[in-house]
Specification:
alpha+beta, about 600 residues, binds adenosine monophosphate, 20 helices, 4-stranded mixed sheet, 8-stranded antiparallel sheet
């Protein structure tokens, strides 16, 4: 029941006293966005005034915005490589941050094929926890009664390594789930998961997923929301159920755990809760054995009120598939975050995916915005535009996000393009438009044009002995199957028809492409099973000319026409697919280890 609190928020009546505090915090912080930003910048610059980085730019202890902006350059990860390298190699001096770097967070964004290493400090965990603590109070405004059930969330840790200097390097969520903030979180009736910590923290992805799915099935009546971080992760769980329901239902029926689960902590946990339940087993079997899996989530977890998954940005491609498996349950995108920094949350989480806007929380970092306005010819402007402060962005305009963090990133370009949709109090709200330079993405992988080009070049070397070359190519992220996979269309020119490349050679070309893609892609293929084998579709000679004719017929200028290196417009896909002469899949997994190359 909603409480009538003196802290009652304009967002709505809070569900409990603790929610009232959280909503009050949101109101306060967004109402004073500019002064909070001032405080954040002052704190960051004061505590780090003696760092090598700020000393180099002669900030001389200044903490005001004007001096900061006039002296510090806007940078990308590449600019910071020397500093990151030194920290990774064990230099513990105050290079970027006065607080010791506690670990590196490995971003899904890559540099030279490897995950970017983001330095972080211990207290950032508190900031992340703070943002997490705001999510349920907001959700409770829209979905009452969530304290009466549980969340079935598929959460996983990934492998971690150490840098030569001994610092841990791992993804931000792995770091969070392994922290005491998560492991020893106090009981919160609004945030009870069906998955035990033992399963979430199990490094073996099969055993982890199996246990989480089994626990979700055993508690199916209590499940009120189903989620994963990204849409692709939830669909992987559905695929897992498709492949494993016979064994899962057998475990439920007999009360004996699948012997493939060997992890002692999981067996110990499951021993306590797994009892023979033939009725439940029959019920799950009845649904899963049907050929038609439409609405399977709502059929098995009948009390589900919404799916909690990110379906903005690249993940929007999964909305139709999620709608299919959930029978059209609402999709809630709750937060916007990265390894560099957690940014903000969606204050209207039950809105349609196309309407999602994230409110950046001004206490998380100091935010600036680089206007993103290519001129009418599509070229960036000659002189760099001025950066705008958080409260000064304009509704309708697009910006690239630039951050200054407590952990020691100063005026750092995140690479995300955001469009302002409105304001909550004085804090702007943003539609996530896209990440810059991403051509293909299935899961957390991000492949850019240069990486694709290099992969095609490397693979096409295998065609030389057949006197064959790739004259044109384009690509497509095919997400109609789970997991999705990259499709590369090739038009070949062979000079010797008696000696054209065989299916075996073209399969090797697929693998060669995979081998040259970045490590996040290869990890998705080799370790996480979140990306399927890459496919080359060879198209008839002249197909790309037809593609150009089609573009010109729709108004493209013949002088400026460039082959699109990625396609997703249905008529173009249909044209390409109707010209396919053969199709070939990668026959093996590309090489990947947690160690950096
Ligand atoms: P990572 O550095 O691997 O943690 O990835 C962070 C990036 O994921 C962000 O910079 C965004 O490009 C993307 N991302 C995170 N949250 C969202 C969201 N809610 N919607 C769309 N993209 C997101």
């Amino acid at each position: 029941m909603a409480v009538d609190s003196p802290l009652s928020s304009q967002l709505g009546p809070p569900a409990c006293e603790r929610d009232a505090k959280a909503l009050h915090f949101i109101e306060e912080t967004t109402s004073h966005a500019d002064s909070v930003q001032d405080r954040v910048l002052t704190e960051i610059l004061t505590r780090n005034s003696q760092t090598e980085y700020l000393t180099r730019f002669k900030l001389n202890g200044a903490t005001d915005r004007e001096t900061f902006k006039s002296k510090l350059p806007i940078i990308t990860y590449e600019d910071l490589q020397p500093e990151i390298h030194r920290i990774a190699n064990g230099d513990r001096s105050a290079i970027l941050s006065a607080h010791p770097i506690s670990e590196f967070l490995t971003s899904s964004g890559t540099s030279a094929g490897e995950r970017k290493l983001m330095p972080t400090i211990k207290e950032e965990l508190d900031r992340r926890r703070l943002l997490y603590s705001l999510l349920m109070p907001v959700m409770n405004l829209y979905v009452p009664g969530l304290e009466r059930g549980k969340g079935l969330y598929f959460l996983f840790v990934k492998s971690e390594t150490r840098t030569p200097g001994g610092l841990l390097a791992r993804p931000v969520l792995t770091s969070y789930y392994k922290s005491d903030h998560f492991k020893t979180r106090p009981y919160d009736p609004y945030n009870v998961y069906t998955s035990p910590n033992e399963a979430i923290l199990c490094p073996d992805s099969f055993q982890s997923m199996y246990t989480q799915m089994l626990c979700g099935l055993l508690q199916r009546q209590q499940v009120l929301r189903v989620g994963a971080v990204f849409a692709s992760g939830l669909l992987r769980a559905i695929r897992f159920l498709q492949l494993n329901w016979p064994q899962l239902t057998q475990d439920i029926e007999t009360g004996a755990l699948n012997p493939k689960l060997t992890e002692p902590s999981l067996r110990e946990y499951m021993d306590k809760i797994l009892k023979p339940n033939p009725e439940l087993a029959e019920c799950v079997r009845h649904e899963c054995s049907k050929d038609n899996w439409e609405g399977i989530i709502a059929r098995i977890w009948q009390n589900t009120k919404y799916l909690d998954v990110i379906v903005t940005g690249a993940m929007a491609q999964y909305i139709p598939t999620l709608d299919y498996y959930s029978g059209g349950l609402p999709l809630a995108c709750t937060m916007y975050a990265s390894s560099e920094c957690y940014f903000g949350l969606n204050l209207n989480p039950m809105c349609k995916p196309s309407q999602v806007s994230y409110t950046i929380m001004p206490n998380m970092a100091y935010f600036e915005f680089l206007p993103h306005e290519p001129d009418s010819f599509g070229f960036p402007r000659a002189s760099p535009p001025k950066l705008v402060d958080l409260v000064d962005v304009e509704v309708g305009k697009e910006y690239e996000l630039v951050i200054t963090t407590y952990a020691g990133l100063y005026r750092y370009r995140v690479g995300d393009i955001l469009r302002v949709t409105g304001f909550h109090n004085s804090a702007p709200q943003f539609h996530f438009v896209r990440r810059k330079n991403v051509l293909l993405s299935i899961d957390s992988d991000k492949t850019d044009e240069a990486e694709l080009q290099k992969a095609v070049e490397n693979a096409s070397r295998l065609l030389r002995e057949f006197n064959t070359s790739v004259v044109e190519y384009t690509s497509y992220a095919d997400t109609r199957t789970i997991p999705g996979h990259y499709v590369i269309y090739w038009e070949l020119l062979g000079k010797d028809s008696a000696n054209s490349p065989t299916d075996e050679v073209l399969k090797q070309c697929c693998l060669a492409m995979e081998e040259s893609l970045n490590s996040v892609y290869r990890q998705g293929r080799a370790a996480d099973n979140s990306i399927g084998p890459l496919e080359i579709r060879v198209v008839k000679n002249g197909t790309f000319e037809e593609l150009m004719d089609y573009a010109i017929s729709r108004g493209a200028s013949i002088n400026q026409y460039k082959v699109p290196r990625c396609v997703n417009f249905t008529p173009i896909m249909e044209l390409l697919d109707s010209r396919v002469v053969s199709s070939h899949f990668s026959p093996a997994l590309p090489h990947w280890t947690p160690e950096r190359r």
